[in-house]
Write a structure and sequence with these properties.
The protein is an alpha/beta fold and 448 residues long. Helix content is 33%, strand content 20%. It has 15 helices and 20 strands. Helix 4 packs across helix 10 and helix 11 packs parallel to helix 12. The protein starts with 5 loop residues before the first helix and ends with a helix.
Length: 448
């Protein structure tokens, strides 16, 4: 941040300052373990711990000030007391954004937000000093944290915006005020709160309310809902269909877990080798290319950016154990990302195996959506499905004799060695809350 002093932050938040106010303020931090010299520590009271208890630790680590709803007994240092810490950091986020005169790309969608953010950052970083959202800091706490990290030397920012309900995007985008919007896909995510695809579309596109009419809008042109944005004045579409502005051809899944394709934009052609697995990575490359083309990057810069992409966490990371190939994609799941992952799996060599668990937050139609994914796996020719979780039982029922359902996750994990064979290509995928990562790790240890 370093645009404001402690006294400035007190004025922005309407808080009461106890202590000195002359020090410059760095980034907003909500975990005292991550505090660096000059940072602002925001003390949130959570279900398991109270950030106010860690204010002394924050000062010991060099925090310039702390934002709190009360001052713990014995605390010495600059504390800004506010009625609501959440509301206060949102005000700080907006104030930080008002200091900026750089491109800010807002990234949202039902699936692929983080991958898109990382790919766009990789491309733009070939020319610009670009800041990106760290990890999954894409909500009402994470977005102000990201905005507070943008410094004077930054020339662009890529900000991920994640929501689960109506009105949230309006709030996030009022802080980020994107100069460009990237929409990855409108799919079956958070239906428990957004009801149906029309609801998802309406909630995601609230971002446009806080953007200029002629601001760059980049959409997945293969998505039926997103094509409704064709009225936007400055629109670029990407996808696999020929009617998109930026599209891909000659797609090839390589045995080393990479993906090759040719990206087309008008008369321009770029051959790229994406250092990650899956058809969804082709879309990610197209997203990075579309933003890159719009911001005037050369074909070489776009190619270098795409090829420098690094897989984040458990998002489709491929491991060859020498016995089997494991595709660790258990960061999250919904029906659309499940089907996309199956499509990518079927491009790989070997016997195709899916180790899956429940997709969460699908609302009242959850059973039917799990059944649809099971049918899809059967239609695509998946040879074996191993699953656990109450809803995944319905997925297995539709996959027929090729599926085995386990009542307990540990039983599934203990049975992996029995069901896997040398040369298998195994996809591990579920919603984050199902914690299927233990199954992925067990598979990675198989080296017969």
């Amino acid at each position: 941040m370093k645009y404001f002093t402690v006294s400035d932050i007190a004025k922005i938040t309407g808080g009461t300052l106890t202590g000195e106010g002359n020090a410059e303020v760095g980034a907003i931090v909500v975990d005292s373990r991550n505090v660096k010299k000059g940072d602002l520590f925001a003390a949130f009271k959570g279900e398991k711990s109270d950030g106010h208890d860690y204010i002394p630790t924050a000062f010991e680590k060099g925090a310039s000030c702390c934002l709190a709803e009360r001052i713990p007994e014995g605390v010495r240092g600059s504390v800004i007391v506010v009625d609501n810490v959440q509301s206060a950091i949102e005000k700080i986020g907006k104030a930080c954004r008002e200091k900026l005169n750089i491109p800010v790309i807002g990234v949202t969608g039902s699936v692929g937000k983080t991958t898109a953010k990382e790919m766009v950052w990789a491309v733009l970083s070939q020319r610009f000093n670009t800041l990106k959202t760290e990890g999954n800091h894409n909500n009402q706490i994470g977005v102000p944290m990201t905005l507070s990290r943008i410094e004077r030397e930054h020339e662009a920012a890529v900000v991920e915006l994640g929501i689960s309900g109506f009105g949230e995007m309006r709030l996030l985008s009022s802080m980020a005020r994107p100069t460009a919007a990237l929409f990855t896909y409108i799919g079956h995510a958070h239906l428990e709160f957004l009801h149906d695809l029309d609801g998802v579309f309406a909630a995601k596109t609230e971002m446009l309310e806080n953007m200029d009419e002629d601001a760059l809008t980049v959409i997945n042109g293969d998505d039926e809902k997103l094509r409704q944005l064709a009225y936007r004045k400055n629109l670029i579409s990407f996808g696999l269909n020929e009617n998109n502005d930026v599209r891909a051809e000659n797609i090839k899944a390589c045995t080393d877990g990479t993906t090759e394709c040719t990206i087309l934009y008008g008369e321009r052609k770029i051959d790229v080798k994406i250092p990650a697995y899956g058809q969804h990575m082709v879309y990610a490359a197209l997203e990075g290319a579309a933003v890159g083309f719009a911001m005037g990057l050369s074909g070489e810069e776009i190619k270098n950016g795409i090829e420098s992409y690094q897989t984040v966490g458990r998002r489709g990371a491929v491991t060859d154990t020498g016995f089997i190939t494991v595709i660790d994609d258990c960061y999250n799941a919904n029906p659309d990302s499940m089907k996309c992952a199956v499509d990518s799996l079927m491009r790989m060599s070997g016997r195709h195996v899916c180790v899956v668990s429940d997709m969460r937050e699908l609302g009242e139609n959850s059973e039917e959506m799990h059944r649809q994914v099971g049918k899809y796996m059967a239609e695509k020719g998946v040879e074996l499905v191993l699953s656990c979780g109450p809803m995944s039982r319905f997925l297995c029922e539709e996959s027929g004799e090729r599926a085995v359902w386990f009542e307990e996750k540990q039983t599934l994990i203990d049975s992996l060695e029995k069901y896997t064979e040398k040369g298998d290509c195994v996809l591990v995928k579920a919603s984050l809350g199902m914690h299927l990562e233990n199954a992925a790790e067990a598979l990675k240890m198989m080296k017969k």
